[in-house]
Write a structure and sequence with these properties.
- The complex is a heterodimer of chains A (300) and B (161).
- Chain A has 300 residues and is mainly alpha-helical.
- Chain A has two domains: 57 residues; 187 residues, no CATH class.
- In chain A, 67% of the residues lie in helices and 5% in strands.
- Chain A contains 15 helices and three strands.
- Chain A has a three-stranded mixed sheet with strand order 1-3-2.
- Chain A starts with a helix and ends with a helix.
- In chain B, strands 6-5-4-1-7 form a five-stranded antiparallel sheet, with no helix packed on it. In chain B, strands 2-3 form a two-stranded antiparallel sheet. A two-stranded parallel ribbon of chain B has the order 8-9.
- Chain B has one domain: SH3 Domains (SH3 type barrels, Roll), CATH 2.30.30.
- With 161 residues, chain B is of the alpha+beta class.
- The termini of chain B are far apart.
- In chain B, 36% of the residues lie in helices and 27% in strands.
- Chain B is built from five helices and nine strands, in the order H-E-E-E-E-E-E-E-E-H-E-H-H-H.
- The chains are: A mainly alpha (300), B alpha+beta (161).
- Chains A and B meet through helix 4, helix 5, strand 1, helix 10 and helix 11 of A and helix 2, helix 3, helix 4 and helix 5 of B.
């Protein structure tokens, strides 16, 4: 009977947030050890491994996030050819890097960078650390610079909130901690490097399968939309641009498609949440922005 | 008796002032590859100097998300997202191994790094990093970003003015 109560209690503690994890686990294992369910050595072992999970997730440094992001972006680009247009890439990066300055996390290890993918599907991906990829199909949902700013701000929001890293199965991080715990030096030996690379491969796979196939949890998408509203407002863009993009997306999406139709909440659901957040009026003076937007998008 | 109490109070106030000063003089590490120190708390501020990953700065004051920092020979402003309270150590050693378990230290280059990426590339020859490398080189200079905002009549708040 004691097992039925105490073991689930410990497992429950394994699922709570990092901040309180160590203390809660110590309390839980202490209780289990005191009541004889587990012995002192087992309790210590559980404490150590839980502590490793908590610390290792926090300890994905911006440097490691950068290496994860590079490989996630390269993996996505291996399935989606880049759209090689110097003018488009320059415009997208000027707009995107401008917007990134207004996020709560303007500085990442290698900075924010943007690229168009040559695909008619409606897609946009934010790889950790700030590698942001937007498809031609997504650009076609944008009729104004405001709308495109909305798309980029949403993706910056995913980076700012570490949504990509959170898609990594926690067991990978425990495995990495185990390997790294044996060796503090920079240069791992052949076997350890091979094991760490396997963990890295699995982590990349967790992120790419989430962003390309299953999609983030709905709450992450709404959080990224909320972050986008903040970024857009600070940057002088109307967040209504994001709403108009979603209205156009609703018309362009093909039911059953392997793009935003599959990975994101329905546009009308996002619009409903967004309209609760938007209070700023649409800026009147948009002519100059529209001219440069139309100029860049011509021929897309 | 009253004098003694007064002296104790004065000493207490003095001690808390010293402690408050000590608390504000926080040492932080640069957690990104390269960061700029500017003359104002704004991304459009003049760049006075640059600091690199693992460099240490002393925090003098705060202004929103910006820190006024001191480095040897230079004082200026940095965005807080470029900094961490963790002590980033560039080289490993016996001391590093001990402190690493405290959670207050991060060893640069440990974990997922260029060696792991190279191994990944060797295992996945079908995944091409050419465009990722090209992407990374695209860095729009601050004056161009400012011109973009001005030409677009963007009424931005705060940090780029």
């Amino acid at each position: 009977m004691k097992y039925l109560i105490i073991i689930p209690a410990i497992l429950g503690m394994l699922l709570v947030g990092c901040a309180t994890l160590d203390k809660l686990t110590e309390a839980g294992t202490g209780l289990a050890a005191a009541t004889g369910v587990i012995n002192a050595d087992q309790a210590q072992s559980i404490n150590k491994s839980v502590s490793a999970v908590g610390k290792v997730f926090e300890s994905i440094t911006p440097e490691q996030e950068y290496y994860i992001g590079r490989t996630v972006a390269a993996t996505i680009l291996s399935k989606n050819k880049p759209y090689d247009s110097r003018a488009m890439t320059a415009y997208l990066n000027t707009l995107g890097q401008y917007l990134s300055l207004f996020s709560d996390r303007p500085e990442t290890f290698g900075g924010y960078h943007f690229l168009v993918m040559d695909s008619p599907d409606i897609n946009a991906f934010a790889a950790p650390g700030g590698f942001i990829l937007v498809s031609r199909g997504m650009l076609r949902c944008c009729k104004t610079e405001e709308a495109l700013a909305g798309v980029l701000a949403h993706e910056i929001g995913h980076v700012e909130l570490n949504h990509g890293l959170q898609a990594i199965d926690k067991s990978r991080l425990t495995a990495a901690a185990t390997i790294l715990g044996t060796e503090a030096a920079k240069n791992l030996g052949g076997k350890d490097l091979a094991e760490l690379t396997k963990t890295f491969e699995n982590s990349i796979s967790d992120i790419t399968s989430t962003v390309m196939n299953s999609g983030y949890a709905r709450k992450f998408e709404f959080q990224a939309d909320k972050a986008a509203v903040t970024i857009l407002t600070r940057a002088g863009y109307s967040p209504n641009g994001l709403v108009s993009m979603l209205q156009q997306m609703e018309k362009n999406l093909k039911p059953g498609g392997h793009d935003f139709a599959k990975t994101h909440p329905a546009p009308q659901d996002r619009i409903a949440e967004l309209t609760k957040l938007i209070t700023t009026p649409h800026p009147a003076d948009t002519a100059a922005r529209q001219a440069r937007f139309d100029d860049t998008m011509r021929g897309l | 008796m009253r004098t003694k109490r007064l002296l104790l109070t004065v000493a207490g106030v003095g001690l808390s002032t010293v402690m408050a000063w000590a608390a504000t003089a926080t040492l932080m590490s640069v957690q990104i590859r390269k960061a700029d120190i500017r003359d104002t708390p704004s991304f459009m501020g003049k760049i006075l100097t640059s600091v690199s990953y693992g460099d240490k700065v002393t925090i003098q004051s705060e202004n929103g998300a910006w820190f006024q920092v001191n480095t040897p020979g230079q004082s200026g402003w940095m965005h807080s997202s470029a900094l961490t309270k963790k002590n980033i150590v560039m080289k490993s050693g016996a001391g590093a191994q001990t402190s690493a378990s405290s959670g207050e230290m991060a060893l640069a280059g440990k974990g997922f790094n260029s060696d792991v990426e190279s191994q990944f590339k060797a295992n996945h020859k079908d995944i091409d990093f050419t465009w990722v490398d090209k992407m990374e080189k695209i860095k729009i200079p601050p004056p161009e970003i400012k011109a973009f905002a001005q030409a677009g009549h963007l009424d931005a708040q705060g940090c780029v003015k």
